[in-house]
């Protein structure tokens, strides 16, 4: 009897062992993701640090077009008309708002994700994560697809799979668009794996609107997300989300081509970065996801960042199990199983909890990487993706519009 029992345990152990080895070492394929996790050391700032402390500020927000705009991701303010706003939603729409009301739907992409919007000379430049770079002419109302993701194939044989943000710069009669190309491995639906591996195929592209030429100016980035240009037009500031830092790339000047770290060990994952409206003091708004100061809850990445092999095992198993469940659900027509399968398959199941317990945060930083202001939004636990600053002449107050993954378009009046 004992013999039988121990051989049963023994064989169960052997099977698990073989399975683990297989999941870790087998070649990538339909059921196993192409992952090579790296060791990361990403300490969080000290709890008494000013940035963590966030001046204990939480602002009330007015939710704009709550029922109409579902999960706003990106936004652009019209510099000439502070009551006009352009917003891209995760449901695939690009809206124009006037006085906080939607007045027009400019573009729509079934299953698309409009991101990275910038208004430049009456033209709205934006990204659709799955298809590339677009421009919408506000005067002629025409939409043009400037750059398709697969057009980057000639660069090194591996086309881009996920564009995220852009910034426009004028250079000698040419309009240049700098783009954050997040991955050549995973599309936006699989962003969790780009974040958790992390995938280091991210890069910065330079696109010329004059001759449609695309070049790579910076590579090997781990989830480059937001991008902004400095006032002297000499540097790009880039949020490298998976490394929880902001880097600076010199476009011009003495250190041309050099890349340095502007700020690291942020208390959350930096999403987007945008210049504030303060003309005399150069400062930037950065939206953070998963801020780790809320009840000091740590996230999946804090627990496993120094364990690359364990991460590979967890991520591959999650995708494998998700794929199997999804296919079974598909076979038997079970929506529940399909939903569960897809939440595992996309990796969201691994970090959903982190999003629920760690709210977003906005920080304002200067060129010397001092934190000037930081705050959260009252009664809102979601991510703060992007921040655009406006101004209320009557109240003499700074106004911020914020977008959020899974949240609302918010309008906040800053009070010191
Ligand atoms: C930077 O470029 C913008 C156009 O992209 C221009 O309006 C601005 O004057 C430039 N700033 C400097 C300091 O050259
Ligand atoms: C595009 O840029 C590359 C690198 O700067 C250059 O070698 C190439 O000639 C350019 N192509 C066009 C069409 O301008
Ligand atoms: C701009 O920043 C300076 C220095 O921090 C501050 O004194 C000034 O009030 C700010 N102006 C606006 C309009 O926010």
UniProtKB/TrEMBL annotation:
TM spans (from-to): 6-25
Domain spans labelled Strictosidine synthase conserved region: 169-248
UniProt KW Transmembrane keyword: yes
A Pfam family of this chain: Str_synth
Alphabetic keyword roster: Glycoprotein, Membrane, Phosphoprotein, Transmembrane, Transmembrane helix
Domain of life: Eukaryota
SUPFAM superfamilies: Calcium-dependent phosphotriesterase (SSF63829)
InterPro entries according to UniProt: 6-blade_b-propeller_TolB-like, Strictosidine_synth_cons-reg
Family: Belongs to the strictosidine synthase family.
Protein name: Strictosidine synthase conserved region domain-containing protein
Organism: Dermatophagoides pteronyssinus (European house dust mite)
């Amino acid at each position: 009897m004992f013999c039988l029992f121990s051989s049963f345990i023994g064989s169960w152990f052997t099977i698990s062992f073989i399975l683990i080895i297989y999941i870790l070492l087998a070649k990538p394929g339909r059921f196993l993701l192409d992952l090579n996790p790296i060791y990361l050391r990403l300490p969080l700032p000290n709890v008494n640090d000013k940035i963590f402390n966030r001046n204990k500020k939480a602002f009330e927000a007015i939710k704009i077009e709550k029922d109409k705009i579902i999960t706003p991701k990106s936004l652009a303010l019209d510099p000439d008309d502070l009551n006009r706003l352009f917003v891209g939603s995760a449901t695939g729409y690009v809206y124009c708002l006037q006085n906080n009301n939607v007045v027009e739907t400019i573009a729509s992409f079934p299953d698309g994700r409009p991101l990275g919007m910038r208004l430049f000379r009456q033209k709205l430049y934006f990204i659709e994560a799955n298809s590339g770079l677009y421009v919408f002419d506000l005067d002629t109302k025409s939409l043009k697809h400037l750059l398709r993701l697969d057009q980057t194939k000639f660069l090194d044989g591996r086309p881009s799979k996920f564009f995220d943000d852009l910034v426009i710069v004028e250079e000698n009669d040419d309009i240049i668009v700098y783009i954050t190309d997040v991955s050549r491995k995973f599309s936006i639906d699989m962003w969790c794996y780009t974040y958790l591996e992390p995938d280091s195929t991210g890069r910065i592209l330079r696109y010329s609107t004059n001759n449609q030429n695309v070049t790579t100016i910076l590579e090997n980035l781990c989830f480059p997300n937001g991008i902004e240009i400095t006032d002297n037009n000499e540097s790009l500031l880039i949020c490298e989300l998976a490394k929880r830092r902001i880097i600076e790339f010199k476009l011009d000047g003495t250190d041309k081509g050099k890349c340095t770290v502007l700020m690291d060990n942020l208390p959350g994952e930096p999403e987007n970065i945008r210049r504030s409206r303060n003309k005399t003091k150069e400062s930037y708004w950065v939206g953070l996801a998963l801020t780790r100061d809320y009840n000091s809850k740590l996230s999946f990445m804090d627990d496993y960042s120094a364990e690359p092999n364990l991460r590979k095992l967890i991520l591959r198993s999650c995708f494998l199990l998700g794929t199997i469940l999804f296919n079974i659900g598909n076979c038997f027509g079970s929506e529940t199983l399909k939903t569960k399968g897809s939440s595992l398959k996309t990796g969201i199941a691994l970090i959903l909890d982190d999003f629920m317990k760690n709210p977003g945060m906005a920080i304002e930083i200067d060129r010397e990487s001092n934190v000037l202001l930081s705050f959260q939004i009252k009664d809102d636990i979601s991510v703060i993706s992007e921040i655009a600053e406006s101004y209320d002449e009557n109240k003499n107050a700074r106004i911020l519009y914020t977008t959020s993954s899974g949240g609302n378009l918010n309008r906040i009046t800053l009070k010191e």
